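User: Predict the structure for this protein chain, please.
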Amino acid sequence: MKYHPLLPDTLLGDPEFFRKKLPEILFRSVRPEQSWLPPDSPSLNASAVLFLLGILPETEGDICLILNKRSQKVRQPGDLCCPGGGITPFLDRFLAALLRLPGRHLRSWPCWSLLQRKCPPAARCLAHFLATGLREGWEEMHLHPAGVSLLGPLLPEHLVLFRRAIYPLAVWVDRQEIFRPNREVEKILRLPLRDLLQPVHYATFRLEYPPHISNKLRREQQDFLCFLFEDRGETEMLWGATFRVVLNFLRIVFDFHPPGTQKLPLIHGSMKKSYLRGRPKKQETLSLRFPPE
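Assistant: Here is the predicted structure, written as structure tokens:
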């Protein structure tokens, strides 16, 4: 049975209805019994991330997406991302077993029993990646696992340059307003979902590659769709793999399609050599040039 997306106001106007409806929407659309099977390529590294949703503080129930901004001490500094990372096999396997206990995250998810019956390998994969995401969320930003509830899986993303597959899980963060980022995170940002549904915030990001990357990709530059927003007086840009995860979520839930890149404002950027290595010198991240207002 095909899911017919609801109007944004129907979901965003009632956070409790949003929480109850989303597991059904994601399970029907993503079909984890097909898309969430373990990676079949031994050369492809797998990571899990949490797509954090919650209530925007000091509002009357506005739903927001909670993101990390990567610090200067890690690769891809300055980029916005979901908390998460690579698997720690023994520890995450143990944590996944705990998540299956009565009253815990998986048993509280409405679709867990159905997924176990339809495709046990996908269920094990999801449990393992949820454990990874919760562990990484605690390490990166002190996300309290007890205040997190599972909403459902999103479509995996493949990063060609990093030979990595990202498995995102949408979760709801209940009542936690204060996070404590570690050395990998510069700051925590909250982005209202309503803003993501407004085409006026989208732009084209034209990225120039350094020689060692352009030779590998066989192109000197590339255009990306991106999203711009203001946070504490600073312009932030959401792009790349995290942006694609966000767009998949908006398409599945709201049937939202962003504008084409041809008619959008153009932002120029250049990638520094240290961007992919980490620990850049003198704020060497992505050098951006915004168009005049």
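DSSP finds ten helices and 13 strands in the chain.
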